[in-house]
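Quick log. Single chain, no ligands specified.
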Amino acid sequence: MPMEIGAAVDEVTVTVAAERVPEVCRIAKDHPDLNFDYLRCISAVDYVERIEVSYHLFSLRRRHKMVIKTNVQLDEPRIPTVVSVWRGADWFEREAHDLYGVVFQDHPNLSPLLLYDGFEGHPGLKSFPYHEYEEW
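-> predicted structure:
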């Protein structure tokens, strides 16, 4: 997948292949013209045929923001971790793992953050079976 660059509202967006995420994140953080030193959050969206994972970045010094996006397949949702780039990625990756089943390869500890040990399934996925109930 070639890199795609675009814009959405007031942010530059860069879409890359999952295996390139750590490399692109490292450049975004370390390049003096970019200086994205703050990872605001990592979000995941289930588009049924794929999961989009987005890294929302901000430069405290330069006061600009950007989103790095990637797509993973539902049957093999794997992305290399970016904990070595931003330590704050730890909890965001654990949350995406809990809710969407995304596996962040080489993450130091993908233990559940929001769900209890033994919870079955990923409640962020559209395919997750919610219990039907009747309102009174």
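The longest strand covers residues 38-46.
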